[in-house]
Amino acid sequence: MSDLEAPLRPKRKKIWVDYFVQFRWILVIFVVLPISFTLYFLTYLGDVRSEWKSFKTRQKEHDENVEKVVKRLKQRNPSKDGLVCTARKPWVAVGMRNVDYKRARHFEVDLSDFRNILEIDQDRMIARVEPLVNMGQITRVTVPMNLALAVVAELDDLTVGGLINGYGIEGSSHKYGLFSDTVVAFEIILADGTLVKATKDNEYSDLYYAIPWSQGTLGLLVAAEVKLIPIKEYMKLTYKPVVGNLKDIAQAYSDSFCPRDGDQDNDEKVPDFVETMIYSPTQAVCMTGRYASKEEAKKKGNKINSVGWWYKTWFYQHAETALKKGLFVEYIPTREYYHRHTRCLYWEGKLILPFGDQFWFRFLFGWLMPPKVSLLKATQGEAIRNYYHEMHVIQDMLVPLYKVGDALEWVDREMEIYPLWLCPHRLFKLPVKTMIYPEAGFELQRRQGDTQYAQMFTDVGVYYAPGPVLRGEVFDGAEAVRKMESWMIENHCFQPQYAVSELNEKNFWRMFDAGLYEECRRKYGAVGTFMSVYYKSKKGRKTEKEVREAEQAHLETAYAEVDQPAD
User: Fold this and answer.
1) Closest by CA position to 537, among listed 459, 466, 485
2) Which of 19, 90, 193, 522 would give a disulfide with 70, using CB separation of 3.0 to 4.6 Å?
3) Are 322 and 285 in contact (CB under 8 A)?
4) What range(s) does the FAD-binding PCMH-type domain occupy (predicted)?
């Protein structure tokens, strides 16, 4: 939206928090970055020590840790102790939703030792991992073997447990679905301390389908078997500039990975990786990647770009150069490509450190990047936290592919946020209706990107300060998010629960389906032991009284319209 078209809003009077946020980079440089670097290094040493252990030793430690968790759960007195949650500190989570539910009285279970890769099974093409294994750790082990998880979320710190219980996507999700879709088996400790293994075809198949998006409210995840795929040493990445209106950009994005003839399963026509970044209402860059061997990458005339070096231009800014120089192709080492957004946190790094993208800073201090999101949260305080809720947006909108153009126009009209991130994913038609599900009858419409077994969706990533905030105008962040959520409900879209949500309980269950989830809550004893997913995701502090009243409400399934027919 141009400045001439932007709605006139009154100027917002600055308060002390504005100045604190403006100069927060001082705290980040002298406190957050050094501590972050130290923590990253210590974590790396711990990962290396784990890798030195034999798989047999790791499995023995895993079994011992599982026994500790089972014993701890059995010590809980339901009439006296609070609901069960992990002992992880509230600010440690990578997501921007603050973990307020832990402020209520609760019964802690320590899962901090569950951070080992238990097995890489090249025959079954499965990685068996514990929930605190992160993406940086797993790619460091698998990529040298020319293997990778089918879906590798971009940021190093994202953990397997968070991506399963919450939400995980990557540029390969248009083939494999969300991260949770690539999990073959979940190992879960139930409320009564029973350890079970849930797969799609065993006696716990209902639990297998209910776990994704449940936020750990059905049981405690202690291991998962995740699908591996063969890869090559490099990613051949094509940058294609797009100029036009937002509907034109949405169509060019769809065309970049969805053949017009509907041949969506043809690997010759569909790239291995896809993402698009939109820099303004009229400019975007579509990127498509295919795995390439080192022999191909090193052929004369081919350009290799090692984007992982600390001094390199931030990836989103590097991609933007295609708008000036036109279409170009380069080869990026595969692991560096996977984590291309880590150092600058997409483009959030520009707000955290306004000069962080300058060459002098990258060259002298880029090796300290990125700041850990958990430390940014730990050092912000209540006032800063509330400021970001009002003046900043970090949201993902999971939108049917054919509605992406409408979503882009809505964001431009209501929030004026750029850049925007587009990443496609399949939403599979499953034997049961899960919390997120494709539109009824989608397979009959034969829309671009859809198949008989999956509807193509897109993550519209909205991360930055809205235009009105950057212009110093009044902006109601909570109201903007409420409007966004209403639009999403009306258009069969979904909101990942890591983000700050303004949904009330009734609207939460309008967006998500409660049937299977509530059934498993009752069947496996989660009610009265684990907080419900809505109250775990709900914005704001939770008192013990509110938590227990919420549990009673869920026993009565007040808003869970489980008997309603599908739309």
Assistant:
1) 485
2) 193
3) yes
4) 45-231
Distance CA 541, CA 307 (A): 41
Cα of first residue to Cα of last residue in the chain, in angstroms, is 34
The CATH code that applies to domain 386-499 is: 3.30.70
Q: What angle do CA 208, 209, 211 make, to 5 degrees?
A: 70
Digit-by-digit pLDDT tens for the chain (567 residues) are: 545 455 567 888 888 888 888 899 999 999 999 999 999 999 999 999 998 999 999 999 999 999 999 999 999 988 788 788 887 766 556 555 555 555 555 788 999 999 999 999 999 999 999 999 999 999 999 999 999 999 999 889 999 999 999 999 999 999 999 999 999 999 999 999 999 999 999 999 999 999 999 999 999 999 999 999 999 999 999 999 999 999 999 999 999 999 999 999 999 999 999 999 999 999 999 999 999 999 999 999 999 999 999 999 999 999 999 999 999 999 999 999 999 999 999 999 999 999 999 999 999 999 999 999 888 888 887 788 888 888 899 999 999 999 999 999 999 999 999 999 999 999 999 999 999 999 999 999 999 999 999 999 999 999 999 999 999 999 999 999 999 999 999 999 999 988 888 999 999 999 999 999 999 999 999 998 898 899 888 766 555 566 666 556 555 543 444 444 444
- The 3-state DSSP class for residue 477 equals helix
As a dihedral over the C-alpha atoms of residue 62, residue 64, residue 66, residue 68, rounded to 10 degrees, the angle is -140
Backbone phi, psi, residue 47, to 5°? -65, -40
The CATH number of 57-229, from 3.30.465.10, 3.40.50.2300, 3.30.230.10, 3.90.1640.10, is 3.30.465.10
Under a CB-based contact definition with an 8 Å cutoff, are residues 1 and 468 in contact? no
Give the span between the Cα atoms of 380 and 375, in whole angstroms: 9
- Taking the C-alpha atoms of residue 236 and residue 293, their distance in angstroms, rounded to an integer, is 9
